[in-house]
Amino acid sequence: MSPQALPDYPTGTSLKPWKTVNVSSGVKRISNPIREILAGIDLSAPVAQGPKQLVNLGLGDPSVFGNHAPAPESIAAIEESLKSGRSLGYPESVGYADAREAVANYFDEGPNGNWRVTKNDVVMTHGASGALEMAISVLADETKNVLFPRPLFTAYETMSAISRCEIRYYDLLPEQDWEVDLAHLESLIDENTAFVMLNNPSNPCGSNWSEKHLRDIAALMAKHQTLVITDEVYAGLAWDVTGPRPAAADAPRVEGKFNRGVFTPYASICGPSPCLVVGAVSKRWLAPGWRLGWVIVHDPLGVLAEVRGGLAKWAFRIQGPNSTMQRALPAILANTPERFYLDTMAELKRTGEALYDRLERIPGLTPRRPQGAMYLCCQYSGLDLEDDKAFVTAFYDEERVFILPGAAFRLDGYIRFVTTTPLPVLMDACDRLEAFCKRHVKSA
Ligand SMILES: *Cc1c(COP(=O)(O)O)cnc(C)c1O
Fold first, then answer.
1. Residue 37: its pLDDT value, please?
2. Counting atoms of ligand 1 from 1, which one is nearest the CA of 280?
């Protein structure tokens, strides 16, 4: 192949050869564990001849299979926003006042509640990712440590790279429905801890902590006066809890906009202790592509004044998320009917439980029963596979099913399922998984 002809330099300029351009040291520190794990697996390779259709169960994106559509009310709200002509200009960098007010009204528990929110507590962001990046960057630097759960949504690591903070991991306990190992968490806290990250309901665990467990965590945070960032992008998407099952779990409802009695917002039980709450329309409203999220400051004691200023400064860098979505948000939050949330939840529960029951019958697999969010983690043992990366690579090569290894979440010896997948697709994948596991039983 002949090289393409290059355009001429402007006359008179130096013809010194160009050197390759380097990136900043900050950006070099950014890693993406999932990307690195997948390096050896080519999902774009042509599907092998044969009856087996490729199934990709890797992506935690509820829109990929087309079985979970956003509410028509949301679509109408975005159309209206476009047509109104009110979403053409720059928003305020922290977000339009009406978008922030809509978020505040959505989460505010009223005069008799524990969690009061006003529009001044809200900063609009580019999805939950933008909210997390903002919160982490405003709080952490090279003199600080930050505490993440293990297993975790590894994007937390990716977003911490620029700030050079030290990452410490506190364990979640699989035998206790992924509750926090409180003694372990406590042992990691010191005077340089910038924050503890909570994620409830959890990606990748599919767990939903009980109110009691959240109160135990909050008591520990109060004891050490440790700030919390709580990633509640799955707020309300839960049908069961860790520990004893509450009566409310048998009668899903969406009271106070959440399945209260089942899902507990951290800010509603942490008392006067401060926290930053991260949310987005991505998961509960089933449209991650809309890229709209928020940070809510919960600060009854007024100790986060500087942090509020920091969030506003950070927001100033990119002038807020896009105006069309911000203008649509009040109508999305006000008009989405309760039925939509209940239907989504019922479908996730049905799929999650059917998947759990099916996996339990496969020798060598120990699934963990999902209680919320869109995931199920499954442990395996007694197979002739070196680690979970070898597991998913062999499974993909032999059965054409792609699934994320636990290593993508710092959870060795597990695989993670996405429960927004249509049930027949999951059941087909399970049949192939059963055949795969049988073939790979470790010989004695
Ligand atoms: C999907 C996800 C996010 C990112 O949400 P976006 O709004 O799409 O940026 C954040 N945290 C967790 C735990 C997630 O699963």
1. 73
2. 7
